[in-house]
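Hey,

Quick one before I head out. I ran the complex with D-serine overnight. Inputs first:
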Amino acid sequence: MDHLKSSDPEVYASIQREVERQNDGIELIASENFVSRAVLEAMGTALTNKYAEGLPGKRYYGGCQFVDEVEDLARERARALFGCDWVNVQPHSGASANAAVYLTVLQPGDTFLGLNLAHGGHLTHGSPVNFSGILYNAEYYGVEADGPLAGRIDMERVRDRALELKPKMISIGASAYPRDFDYEAFRSIADEVGAILWMDMAHTAGLIAAGELNDPMRHAHIVTTTTHKTLRGPRGGMILVGDDFENPFGKVAPKSGRTKMMSELLDSAVFPGMQGGPLMHVIAAKAVAFGEALDESFKDYSIQTLQNASAMADAFMAKGYDLVSNGTDNHLMLIDLRNKGITGKDAEAALGMAEITVNKNMVPFDDKSPFVTSGIRVGTPAMTTRGLEEEDFVEVVELVDAVITSPNDEGVVAGVRERVRELCSRYPLYDFVVP
Ligand code: DSN
């Protein structure tokens, strides 16, 4: 980064401080990961200069022959990774991908059914402050408060809600749900009420690609994802179409009168519906990340991510922590801190002082606001990329517990910070910080 260092030392210094923060701290934010040098290099290229509105072979600009190659590679690899026939790799983010789904499936005011944000759902699944809740009639299903399914989705209740509301679309997917989904049951409910089934697999895409969680591609009509979480690519989004869904609405192409395919509708919803020019440097980085995920080593990584999460959940529970649903099936856990006498906000701040990064998170049936919260969410994807295994995560739980037990004891926090640094030095991350 010699050019940046001499031409803009201020931005350079901030970037270096952030790289140092990533190198020296324990990253437990469940939606974050560390990309490879190859992914970073692909993003930092002259492909950022290129306008390429349209699709490979059908662009609105000249000079697209090489970015076409890159986008074709990204599409081929994504199709191979998820075993699907069609994909659009252009959404700038998961939220953009999701917006294209709404634009394709619903008219403003239409009813859809999604997982309540306060129970682990996502902002773009109908939150009243998001376009999805502002433009459409969002209704929710949630998790159980108690009983054998406490903290989990009861599919009978989802069916009852769907029969009562007759939604035009049912969404699955979450940002803080520690259990896997029963896609078959969701599809059967969607078929019963004539709804489109959409899965947002942003959190678990990498684990699904590796074959370690249930596969939504065989049941959902539309699947969206981000590319940066468990999938370990650059920040971005993507839309995929499942096995059997090409012609849902009978919308026709204006000139030919031919019924449009679902894939055509989604392509037009991304561009020109939602976006202008795609970010070709990011699409190149997506292609690189998908190539990495097709390698056998990615399966090993995904298995280790799950084993680490399971070990971490057991270690927390052994120390008396209350985990929503009593554990995890995936890469994350949601910890209800009410029995520990600390809010999510204070826990996040105290852990931050010890260079352990988590995010405060509401727990189902929370009595505190989203700015305070009763819980924290933690996950294993990022630190598993650094090479940590089960026993290391048990050590991480000890460090987290020491801080949460004595958040105001500067000596304890300083001692943990030292152990965090030592642990991180055993598992180096990026070696390109130039002081
Ligand atoms: N904001 C992301 C998360 O942290 O889960 C979801 O998009």
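The chain has a mean pLDDT of 95.

Talk tomorrow,
K.
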